[in-house]
């Protein structure tokens, strides 16, 4: 088959003959099938863009007719290819075009509301932009459109879904029209058929991809799926069906046909199962990201606990390949972080089996997997804010609310202290690695690392300093007003902070700032008289005063409430006016700045 340029394809389409159009479109589609990048900088390319838009209009005209199956499929393939170019989407972003594609995707609803203004991803109102004639056409268009056949061509459905996904990805108008057409309702109806073997992998995948894009890009659709369409239950059931799970007990899951076999010993999930599951996890993340900020009722809590049990299975499962497994676990961890905190106890629900990690009579397999996942991300050291914080935050909140989890994590991260000669941030233990995070510039990472260790210490200042050193701990303690010591109020059980013999023997020699025993340094004031010591102290105060007045530093002092407050010039002058020992002839340490 010979390649055709756009002008020739358009000429064949304008004849209106299906056979001529089919031949032209098949040639064009074959030629452009692997084209994913477009450039409109040059005049020639701009002219080609105009031709592409015209071709799109002609194809849509064909799609509004009765077509033979091969011509219908060729038209939809052309729309898919043209919709890759974000600069040529005008023909496809109106109500008529989107409803036509929705009809062929079998997700058109009987009637759809078309609000004059819809809420976009940033929560602001968008102007309809003068398309008043198109507003309200949705119902008319859908009534005139013929319903899909009882045995739809799934290849046609997939092509239409791909085109809609391309449009949503690149165009805000298309996103608004899709929301007005209530496409989420149509796709949700098919998502309910998760146990129906009729639908092949591609239909299921692009249903989920379309749902992900709608919930990622539209706040209103996100809320609609979560509330009106009961998205958490719907997608939880879909995830359960995708993984082939069955309920093996109270909030315990097992893969059908493998009941009684530990999850880690199950065969890896297939590539298709993993791909579908990850799409579901991403959608669930979109519609639950604010759940842990509000209280949920008993009915909602039951739904989230059931979802948590499924996510535990995901966490303990393996995909085909280490890289794919890590990606799968990453999406799982992200979603677990959205669940209401009281629902995280499902991670500890499974009974202890042979080969399980048991601590205080509780199955710690899931918590241990989370810890290993976090350490792997920590060792990699790449984009820590994006890759590490979800798992570190999840471990922190789990430890805060579950005593067994906290004690298990403390035994792994903060075991009884024996090394008193190396600084807390030096070494390759997990404690050393996390304390090193507390020295980073990125405040989100350092604060999260400090919070994790602080929770493992039951928010005890003395214990926290013992394991991290006062210098590393100062940031968190200052933020909490705990620099004078004490303990934050929290729900923690009483347990002993067992001291090793090594620590007990060296305790008196440990420098609290660095957290280690240091070589004894000579006293710089040895041999000085009291007057000389006073002179050096006053000299230092004047230096601070000068730096402060030149705005080079901001001296701070510790308030009675344990928080840091700024030292004013008056505060520094008080130090100079009330020395410990008043010499007979006070030295002029900074005459050039005297008034």
From TrEMBL:
GO terms for cellular component: cell cortex; plasma membrane. It is found in: Cytoplasm, Cell cortex. Residues 123-135 have a biased composition (Acidic residues). SUPFAM superfamilies: ARM repeat. One of its GO terms (molecular function) is guanyl-nucleotide exchange factor activity. The keyword Chaperone applies. The keyword Cytoplasm applies. Chaperone that specifically binds and folds nascent G alpha proteins prior to G protein heterotrimer formation. Also acts as a guanine nucleotide exchange factor (GEF) for G alpha proteins by stimulating exchange of bound GDP for free GTP. This is Synembryn. The lineage of its organism: Eukaryota, Metazoa, Chordata, Craniata, Vertebrata.
């Amino acid at each position: 088959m010979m390649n055709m340029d756009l002008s020739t394809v358009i000429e064949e389409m304008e004849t209106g003959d299906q056979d001529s159009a089919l031949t032209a479109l098949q040639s064009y589609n074959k030629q452009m099938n692997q084209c994913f990048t477009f450039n409109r900088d040059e005049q020639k390319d701009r002219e080609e863009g105009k031709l592409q838009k015209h071709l799109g209009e002609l194809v849509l005209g064909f799609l509004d007719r009765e077509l033979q199956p091969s011509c219908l499929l060729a038209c939809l393939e052309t729309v898919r290819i043209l919709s890759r170019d974000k600069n040529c989407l005008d023909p496809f972003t109106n109500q008529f075009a989107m409803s036509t594609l929705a009809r062929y995707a079998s997700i058109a609803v009987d009637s759809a509301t078309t609000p004059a203004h819809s809420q976009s991803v940033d929560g602001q109102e968008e102007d309809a932009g003068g398309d008043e004639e198109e507003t309200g056409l949705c119902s008319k268009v859908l009534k005139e459109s013929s319903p899909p056949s009882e045995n739809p061509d799934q290849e046609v459905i997939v092509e239409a879904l791909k085109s809609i996904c391309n449009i949503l990805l690149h165009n805000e108008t298309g996103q608004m029209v899709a929301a007005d057409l209530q496409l989420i309702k149509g796709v949700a109806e098919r998502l309910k058929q998760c146990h129906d073997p009729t639908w092949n992998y591609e239909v299921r995948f692009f249903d989920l991809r379309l749902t992900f894009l709608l919930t990622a890009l539209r706040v209103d659709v996100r809320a609609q799926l979560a509330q009106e369409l009961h998205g958490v239950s719907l997608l939880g059931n879909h995830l359960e069906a995708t993984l082939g799970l069955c309920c093996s007990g109270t909030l315990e899951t097992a893969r059908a046909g493998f009941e009684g076999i530990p999850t880690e010993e199950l065969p890896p999930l297939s590539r298709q199962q993993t791909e579908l599951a990850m799409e579901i996890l991403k959608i669930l993340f979109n519609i639950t990201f604010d759940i842990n900020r509000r209280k949920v009722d008993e009915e909602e809590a039951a739904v989230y606990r059931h979802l948590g049990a499924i996510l535990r299975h995901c966490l303990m499962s393996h995909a085909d390949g280490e890289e794919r497994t890590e990606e799968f676990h990453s999406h799982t961890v992200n979603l677990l972080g959205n669940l209401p905190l009281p629902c995280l106890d499902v991670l500890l629900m499974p009974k202890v089996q042979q080969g399980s990690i048991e601590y205080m009579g509780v199955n710690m397999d899931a918590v241990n997997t989370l810890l290993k996942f976090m350490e792997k991300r920590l060792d990699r050291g790449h984009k820590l804010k994006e890759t590490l914080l979800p798992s570190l935050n999840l471990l922190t909140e789990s430890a805060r609310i579950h005593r067994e989890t906290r004690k298990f994590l403390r035994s792994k991260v903060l075991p009884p202290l024996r090394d008193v000669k190396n600084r807390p941030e030096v070494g390759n233990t997990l404690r050393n690695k996390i304390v090193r995070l507390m020295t980073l510039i990125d405040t989100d990472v350092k604060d999260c690392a400090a919070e994790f260790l602080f929770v493992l210490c039951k928010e005890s200042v003395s214990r926290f300093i013992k394991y991290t050193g006062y210098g590393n701990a100062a940031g968190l303690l200052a933020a909490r007003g705990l620099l004078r010591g004490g303990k934050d109020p929290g729900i923690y059980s009483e347990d002993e902070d067992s001291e090793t013999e090594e620590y007990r023997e060296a305790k008196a020699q440990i420098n609290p700032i660095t957290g280690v025993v240091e070589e004894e340094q000579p006293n710089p004031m040895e041999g000085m008289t009291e007057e000389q010591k006073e002179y050096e102290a006053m000299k230092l105060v004047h230096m601070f005063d000068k730096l402060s007045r030149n705005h080079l530093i901001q001296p701070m002092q510790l308030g009675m409430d344990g928080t840091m407050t700024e030292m004013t010039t008056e505060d520094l002058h008080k130090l100079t006016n009330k020395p410990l020992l008043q010499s007979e002839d006070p030295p002029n340490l900074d005459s050039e700045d005297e008034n």
